[in-house]
């Protein structure tokens, strides 16, 4: 932990307010709240549960600070910066105000609130942590989960590299929440002062480029002040300061994108006659970022391209996950016989996920990763998109993601890492320079520029692929569409037919017990002796992962069933780590067809017909029908 000079990172002139009423640190008794446990990506809870449980925010933030003090020491915190931002969902404003009181009381020197209104995408938070040399950051988000009072709320902590905290760190916070007995917060030292209970009432979170500087008296000062002998005030020289910096969230992020992609070429693409694009922000936090990139920077105003761009605390009742069901209107527009747009993209509420659409075509995220790798490896693509030093060091995908990217990697002698689900598992590989590109079936992709997946980055990547093909086209010749790009990829590398089946609303303890039994049957080999009609099981295992950088283990990360000796026909089963209440079971189905496996035309078929037999077999082998009583999935993605 070192003090850094960050002051001119955010360029513009700042207005500084010195708050005159000192704040006192007070200790408030509390007791543990069960279940404040981090899942795949932070804590996810029902909004109601969070807002109606007294001290929910206080307990978790205090536990976080206790762990920070333990790890870095109080002196370090006293010189440290943390960043906070979020997707703007219901509950975030209350959480932010609690965070200010707790951070001020726990010796933090500076909190950068990204904004306005603490609204920033998860990738922008990661970028800001890195740009500011901060100790870490707090993302107030439940990502793609629904918002509003009846929706979900979430929070996660990111480390100094900008990436989600590893299991070893989040488990310390969780342990702390189980024993917590007090939290520290600040109150006005003079009860008569107009400063208000939390002292932060005067902070206008809409007004970026301002700094508020508060004087914090040491712990115990309040009692000393009220004692008959106020001379005994500890450190009567005034204690320390706590600063709140309200910083424009878009500037650092957009600058980062300009350094990676060739904006002039993208501008030329968007200016091509008949090239129409649509972007759907699903009322999440990407609105201002997309507006600045596509509108202000790339000058794209012609087509009604910007959909649901305004952020709303309940996302307008929309489920802000970019899938075919939630984007039904947009998808219908792309599949209509009218002149549908050429390129469509959408992001989830916090902007780390993406989906790409072409005319009458949807790009499967696992295919998207493979295609990105293929282009990243083309030397002449470097003029459109820069990778760290122009070198692709390696690639990583989460285990349930299809092995389409492995096919490209092995063809080019690039190492492909297979990690558990969750972006945090990529971060060590990125930090160690082992990989330059990562991606997941769950609509995530990203590079080494930050330590989160990055929806707008992936969208700019795809626009760069289109620019690569279409800027040099001779007049009169046909342009290359999104569909052409994907089909050319399948024709060259073969196709990994892929589908995910989700089973929602399973009672959590039932689901967990069933999963433990399944793992036992797989590790004990019993599952291999079952006989069912349909594809026969060739091998099965439980996925355990050892991080190649720090040697840590993540065990029981899903069950894999292989239906062929080459492992190219498989089903993966795992419980979602992002649901807020009941459990969701995910079954991922995959079958590879090589381009020379007979008729290349077959490579154009619908994935569902190709993988249905593996899906049915997985349901029977794993007792999804007999033990969980589920015959068919609630969602196929
Ligand atoms: C979050 C993580 C991703 C992960 C996804 C899986 O979005 O950031 O890295 O792939 O969750 O979600 P699930 O619901 O399948 O656990
Ligand atoms: Zn997200």
UniProtKB/TrEMBL annotation:
The keyword Magnesium applies. Keywords: Isomerase, Magnesium, Metal-binding, Phosphoprotein. GO terms for biological process: carbohydrate metabolic process. Pfam families: PGM1_C_vert_fung, PGM_PMM_I, PGM_PMM_II, PGM_PMM_III. InterPro entries: A-D-PHexomutase_a/b/a-I, A-D-PHexomutase_a/b/a-I/II/III, A-D-PHexomutase_a/b/a-II, A-D-PHexomutase_a/b/a-III, A-D-PHexomutase_C_sf, A-D-PHexomutase_CS, PGM. Gene3D superfamilies: Alpha-D-Glucose-1,6-Bisphosphate, subunit A, domain 3 (3.40.120.10), Alpha-D-phosphohexomutase, C-terminal domain (3.30.310.50). It comes from the Eukaryota. The keyword Metal-binding applies. GO terms for molecular function: magnesium ion binding; phosphoglucomutase activity. SUPFAM superfamilies: Phosphoglucomutase, C-terminal domain (SSF55957), Phosphoglucomutase, first 3 domains (SSF53738). Residues 36-181, 253-357, 393-492 form the Alpha-D-phosphohexomutase alpha/beta/alpha domain. One of its GO terms (cellular component) is cytosol. Belongs to the phosphohexose mutase family. This is Phosphoglucomutase. It comes from Cyanidioschyzon merolae (strain NIES-3377 / 10D) (Unicellular red alga).
């Amino acid at each position: 932990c070192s003090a850094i000079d960050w002051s001119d990172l955010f360029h513009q002139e700042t207005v500084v307010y010195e708050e005159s009423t000192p704040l006192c640190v007070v200790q408030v008794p509390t007791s543990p709240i069960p279940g404040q446990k981090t899942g795949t990506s932070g804590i996810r809870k029902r909004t109601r549960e969070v807002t109606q449980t007294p001290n929910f925010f206080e307990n978790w933030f205090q536990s976080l600070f206790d762990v920070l003090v333990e790890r870095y020491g109080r002196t370090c915190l006293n010189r440290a910066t943390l960043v906070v931002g979020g997707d703007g969902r219901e509950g975030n404003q209350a959480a932010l105000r609690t965070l200010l009181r707790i951070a001020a009381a726990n010796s933090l020197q500076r909190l950068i609130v990204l904004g306005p209104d603490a609204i920033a995408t998860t990738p922008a938070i990661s970028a800001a942590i890195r740009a500011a040399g901060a100790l870490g950051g707090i993302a107030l988000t439940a990502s793609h989960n629904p918002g509003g009072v009846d929706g979900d709320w979430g929070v996660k902590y990111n480390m100094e590299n900008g990436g989600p905290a590893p299991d070893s760190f989040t488990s310390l916070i969780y342990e702390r929440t189980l024993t917590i007995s007090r939290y520290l917060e600040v109150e006005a030292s003079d009860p008569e002062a107009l400063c208000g209970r939390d002292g932060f009432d005067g902070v206008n979170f809409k007004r970026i480029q301002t700094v508020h500087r508060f004087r914090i008296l040491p712990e115990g000062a309040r009692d000393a002040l009220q004692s008959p002998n106020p001379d005994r005030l500890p450190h009567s020289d005034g204690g320390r300061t706590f600063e709140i910096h309200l910083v424009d969230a878009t500037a650092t992020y957009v600058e980062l994108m300009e350094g990676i992609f060739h904006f002039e070429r993208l501008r030329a693409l968007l200016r091509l006659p008949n090239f129409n694009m649509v972007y759907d922000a699903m009322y999440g936090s990407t609105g201002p970022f997309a507006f600045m990139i596509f509108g202000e920077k790339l000058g794209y105003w012609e087509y009604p391209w910007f959909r649901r761009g305004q952020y709303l605390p309940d996302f307008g009742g929309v489920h802000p996950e970019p899938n075919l069901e939630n984007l039904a209107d947009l998808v219908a527009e792309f599949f209509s016989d009218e002149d549908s747009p050429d390129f469509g993209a959408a992001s989830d509420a916090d902007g780390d996920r993406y989906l790409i659409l072409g005319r009458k075509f949807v790009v499967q995220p696992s295919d998207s990763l493979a295609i990105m790798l293929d282009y990243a490896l083309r030397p002449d693509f470097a003029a459109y998109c820069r990778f760290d030093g122009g070198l692709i060091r390696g690639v990583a995908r989460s285990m349930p993601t299809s092995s389409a990217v492995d096919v490209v990697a092995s063809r080019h002698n690039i190492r492909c890492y297979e990690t558990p689900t969750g972006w945090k598992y990529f971060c060590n590989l990125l930090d160690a320079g082992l990989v330059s590109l990562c991606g997941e079936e769950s609509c995530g992709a990203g590079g080494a520029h930050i330590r989160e997946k990055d929806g707008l980055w992936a969208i700019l990547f795809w626009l760069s692929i289109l620019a690569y093909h279409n800027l040099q086209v001779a007049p009169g010749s046909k342009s290359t569409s999104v569909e052409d790009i994907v089909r050319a990829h399948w024709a060259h590398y073969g196709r990994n037919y892929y589908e995910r089946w989700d089973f929602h609303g399973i009672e959590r303890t039932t689901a967990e017990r069933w999963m433990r039994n399944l793992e036992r049957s797989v590790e004990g080999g019993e599952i291999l002796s079952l006989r069912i009609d349909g594809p026969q099981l060739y091998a099965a295992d439980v996925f355990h992962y050892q991080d190649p950088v720090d040697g840590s283990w993540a065990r029981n990360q899903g069950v894999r069933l292989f239906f062929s000796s080459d492992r190219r026909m498989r089903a993966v089963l795992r419980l979602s780590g992002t649901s807020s209440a009941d459990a969701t079971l995910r079954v991922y189905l995959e079958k590879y067809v090589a381009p020379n496996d007979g008729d290349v035309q077959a490579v154009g078929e619908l994935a569902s017909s190709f993988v249905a037999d593996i899906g049915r077999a997985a349901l029977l082998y794993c007792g999804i029908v007999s033990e969980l009583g589920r015959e068919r999935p609630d969602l196929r993605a």
